[in-house]
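FAQ: What does a ligand-bound record look like?

Like this one, built around magnesium ion:
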Amino acid sequence: MSKGPERPNRPALSLHVPEPNARPGDAVDFSDIVIPQAGSVRRPDPHAPAAETHDLVATLVRVLDEDGAAVGPWDPKLDPDSLRRILRDMLLVRIYDDRMYRAQRQGKTSFYMKSTGEEAVAVAGAHALASDDMTFPTYRQQGILVARDYPLVTMMCQVYSNRGDPLAGRQLPIMYSSKAHGFFTISGNLATQVPQAVGWAMASAIKGDSRIAAAYIGDGSTAEGDFHAACTFAGVYRAPVILNVVNNQWAISSFSGIAGAELTTFAARAVGYGIAGLRVDGNDALAVYAATRWAADRARANLGPTLIEMFTYRVEGHSTSDDPSVYRPQNAGAEWPLGDPIQRLKQHLLRLGLWDEERHKALETELAETVRSAQKEAEKLGTLVTSTIDFPQDVRTMFEDVYAEMPWHIREQQAQMVAELEAKRK
Amino acid sequence: MSKGPERPNRPALSLHVPEPNARPGDAVDFSDIVIPQAGSVRRPDPHAPAAETHDLVATLVRVLDEDGAAVGPWDPKLDPDSLRRILRDMLLVRIYDDRMYRAQRQGKTSFYMKSTGEEAVAVAGAHALASDDMTFPTYRQQGILVARDYPLVTMMCQVYSNRGDPLAGRQLPIMYSSKAHGFFTISGNLATQVPQAVGWAMASAIKGDSRIAAAYIGDGSTAEGDFHAACTFAGVYRAPVILNVVNNQWAISSFSGIAGAELTTFAARAVGYGIAGLRVDGNDALAVYAATRWAADRARANLGPTLIEMFTYRVEGHSTSDDPSVYRPQNAGAEWPLGDPIQRLKQHLLRLGLWDEERHKALETELAETVRSAQKEAEKLGTLVTSTIDFPQDVRTMFEDVYAEMPWHIREQQAQMVAELEAKRK
Amino acid sequence: MTVMNMIQALNSAHDVMMARDSNVVALGEDIGFFGGVFRVTEGLQRKYGRTRTFDTPISENGIVATAIGMAAYGLRPVAEIQFADYIYPAFDQIVSEAARLRYRTAGEFTLPLTIRSPYGGGIFGGQTHSQSPEGLFAHVAGLKTVIPSNPYDAKGLLIAAIEDEDPVLFFEPKRIYNGPFDGFFDRPVTPWAKHPKAEVPDGHYAIPLGKAAIVREGEAVTILAYGTMVHVALATIEAEGVDAELIDLRTIVPVDIETIEQSVKKTGRCVIVHEATRTAGFGAELSALVQERCFHHLEAPVQRATGFDTPYPHSLEWAYFPGPIRIGTAIRKALED
Amino acid sequence: MTVMNMIQALNSAHDVMMARDSNVVALGEDIGFFGGVFRVTEGLQRKYGRTRTFDTPISENGIVATAIGMAAYGLRPVAEIQFADYIYPAFDQIVSEAARLRYRTAGEFTLPLTIRSPYGGGIFGGQTHSQSPEGLFAHVAGLKTVIPSNPYDAKGLLIAAIEDEDPVLFFEPKRIYNGPFDGFFDRPVTPWAKHPKAEVPDGHYAIPLGKAAIVREGEAVTILAYGTMVHVALATIEAEGVDAELIDLRTIVPVDIETIEQSVKKTGRCVIVHEATRTAGFGAELSALVQERCFHHLEAPVQRATGFDTPYPHSLEWAYFPGPIRIGTAIRKALED
Ligand SMILES: Cc1ncc(C[n+]2csc(CCOP(=O)(O)OP(=O)(O)O)c2C)c(N)n1
Ligand SMILES: Cc1ncc(C[n+]2csc(CCOP(=O)(O)OP(=O)(O)O)c2C)c(N)n1
Ligand SMILES: [Mg+2]
Ligand SMILES: [Mg+2]
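The answer part, i.e. the structure of the complex:
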């Protein structure tokens, strides 16, 4: 191998490996985060050519200002009930997350993932869609289920893999699925759902249906080939789909620079594919709502996909298996300059006189109670069993749904399993 | 499934499927091709931030004007010998292609692919690189081998899969490989070489080497996940690599609209990844040279990758297995408005008085003779045998190079094959 | 009844299903206006419109992923992968998604998805136009894998695959698209016209998945094959003059174990033939199944006649291809002792 | 000598090789500063710098593709795929590129590339953190596949893999990273400390690829296993009180046929154990090989004790896992008649 030195006229190359600006022990440093004034970003006509959105990929659509006022062209002007509903759903998600996180720590299940700080992305986004639009979420959009009134007890049963789990205990906790609620089955394989969402949207268009699709993907996962396929197909066929990149700036221990954030925004990918793109303050429920509605209107008008970067921050660990304090400063989440989505919407409601501290306290207590009683209900149906053979599910169910009809070899294996269990029971 | 009609308030969606503006029987229509004046596009400093190139992705870097004059900031100002060498190499590639195409038609091999009309991309690009820079080509960059003086006879032996084939007859014709000539083994699987080129470039940077890599990919192949991986990794690690998208506007029977060209240029992908991007008249050898050199200088300065769209046209069929007249107008190639790369460089040389028709004729005759005699040489070593067992290679070689050392099971199979052959010979 | 080659039969299967069910759509590289590099989808776009038969970007991953989304919506997509050698970029979507969707949702989402792809050698396509990847998919629970060997089966099996509620991989032996190939590459090729199985009904009919066909009854040895190899095996049987029973598996997962077991228990000997590389190929599973279930009937070791554990070399195609000599040798071994 | 668990042993293998050879680099998701989700690469970035151990974007395809480019340049990359369940996006680069590069260039380009990945169940990771895909790679000519079962072997085999001139898939049984697991999930887990194979030399040593280890000698039946299953099989042998010979394959391709043949010819009986789904798994190849080569010595059908042909269900993990009962049943069957 020839080295630089051998060619004095050609300098030696060196590899650049991105590194975050703060590691454990360092002070948190968000000084590089550029935050435009709320209300300062123009709102193009949803029917405008994609190119007219391309200056928006380098800024941030924001509605709620520092004082909680809704300002500028993106203000969705929601009615009081809608505002309170979104606040309530976000609060419920957070309380639910805390509860289930604790349940995992108590050994009631194997795994859990919170969406703390990212509640607005799922909740406000879901409320901006029609209830029958199809969502293709990641494991951090449990807020969609809450916004669509999916039963808490059933969510918990899934987390516990118990007798009430509609997925028969087959999926890892938080990998919910509900066709009835327009919530596509969550995959353990990152990014796969995004081109599937595009295909679903293409099918809706092929059939002359009016439902659109909304896909979600994390910043880190945008590196997968699936994301590229999704953007390519969505653009080529003008699929009625919203591609949400939830940029919470971390992928387990890797900061978003490893996914390309040192170079440009994730919203900028839209420019590369020639599709509409928006970059949104993901902790601003009203901005999330407005951008989602904008993209939905565009899709319904047959003008194709919109890529929306929801700029937010992963306040807690990646999952119950993760301890962020070993790779980033302790209190990073608390210092995130764009604040907390729940606090910000609450402040807005307070400012409008549509809310007060008492009602907030009361709501918190009520929701905590709702979650607590749901948990009781769910636990009546069992929690995850890991060290006995008193399985929550009948072992025979393990062999069902591999195919519509059970083929001979799986039937033989089912019989074998039943025999094993009898042997074990003796 | 709910259909549009059931929701009068929501319009029925419909799917957009791109379709070229002319099919067989229609008149060729290139009216939508926007061609900026040669010399009209500015040339940023190769050390400038990537963003300063992003207006260039929507135009065309052109040097040779309609009269064959080299104009504007991108003129590489090549000396007469270099100009004549590039002309000669392009001419040789074309004559070689014609010859090998005919050889396939004569049944001397199974398959062939021409690069007619695209010779400048490979030839001028190769001359703009250092001879030891590593190229990761597709099957349409045979011009790189010619530019790097790879023996014609050896190329032909590969096409014939004969005894002189350095690849032991294992690869489909035109899938050349030569480490010594910085020509990475061509893969039958599209796009795979592009992220490999990025990895090679990363390795060069890791080792403090000074060699850079240049990858090539077709317009259609940019849809593969490999292309996304290449752009992502190249950007993140600022790999010293040039990513050439050779947009000849067709992918077998699919026009570039199926790859996304209705929406934006392929060069625009650079904007999405935040890397440098250029869009170049691929039939203008001087523009190709200048853009390649610009990107090479940038890479050598550790400023990372450049994505270059080489805008050209596939004048002939995809391969010997293809008949373009069934999916596009007959004479499409001849009418391509950006002309023929050989004619254009010839015109430039004539204009400068560095060339004349006699010398051109003489060169054509000389190169035709070179190719003819090379073919004689090559055919002495055999042509592809398809219907006898007089294989060009010793069958035992079939089992070599699967691993560095032959494991027991392959050795057993080798013995079995030898026995089979003896049986067959009787 | 019309005499069809395999391409025409497969085209007819699409046509019949697209006419019967507006949810059937076809997608893939070059399959629209052009009708596919092997012309299997010729005329469908003209007949059913551009939104039901269309070209895709060159992304096998995107083809399968979007087809999964379409199937989850309620369509019955038929996706073409231009060559089986190019199915690997879609491998994750097939094995992690398509294969598991019904299971992980306890039946809430299902995938009536067919993935068609030409496979196998014999056309001097070199390493990347000749592969037989069926064994890889056989290992993945949730997938069915079908491989026809003649026009009649091709149409009936493809219709069954499209009507199936689960994802089906449908591999088409490209070497016999235009005529049966008996493995004697030095002899002239015969067209399908001369073959009884080229008589294909014009309308709808389905051949159930999971059912093998006994191509030739015999007492001396059982030969298990599928795709192109059915014809090569038959020619070898005749050349060797052995009273072999030849079984065309047609579906490899789920495999028709009854037919296999009955035959081997009758003959006491078994030869397995496939073109794919030998190690951990589907022939290994067949060998394991046969010896597990017929052990006490076996009079000789189950033999495998397969492709070698190397890539498919361009110039040595016929040395790689498991032709009459390799199969004949295996048969003779199976008949020894 | 130091007592190490498998994670420490694997980390030590990296350390030794990176110190010896500046061409050895490690890449993968979260492997840099963090040291990997299972901490196998902990401390390497600090010690060898960010350009020799670094995080990658979440693209398994990109990880393997760039590693191939690095290896073609002359480096010896060690790529981590965070879970074997996530190796499929890289499948094309592995089987179409890495496996064939030497062959298609007649040795001009070679790939000293190691792809490491934790595999297997036993940690309640559900369908997508529990898979055993080794059988898929065993079918692809040009790849070697290695699976260690203890710290000593893990280090020696990983060093051999990194030093190997060809691409090696190195699957690490994640269930036994921290301690051997005998399959009795209702008993307390034991740490590696108590296990003789936890005594690991601190320096360089290599265990040749393609060589199995006889874990326990016996006369009654031969048991073939690898990875976690070696420990489960051993515990079962003890529980059943049979005089079984237990062979830890360690490398599945190329497999150590001599050791297998010798043993089965001695015992006349054979049981194959793996966690992967049964159909067309590597057990099928082993079964086929054994009956092809030891047919006249076999006194009973070769048995397979494996995972079932379903995805790995979260809550029924222990029903899926091939534990002592399933293996015991197979052993008893093999000892019948
Ligand atoms: C294909 C695949 N590769 C790797 C993983 C392991 N993994 C699970 S989550 C995760 C990080 C994802 O980060 P991001 O996309 O930013 O989503 P976030 O967790 O931040 O919401 C990784 C690498 C996986 N689940 N699937
Ligand atoms: C992964 C893969 N998919 C499909 C093919 C079949 N195929 C060979 S060339 C080709 C078209 C490529 O078009 P483009 O990338 O524009 O390159 P061009 O032929 O125009 O130079 C296709 C689809 C392949 N070789 N590899
Ligand atoms: Mg993230
Ligand atoms: Mg092209």
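Follow-up question: can I read anything off the structure? Yes, for example: Chain A touches chain C through 46 residues (CB under 8 Å).
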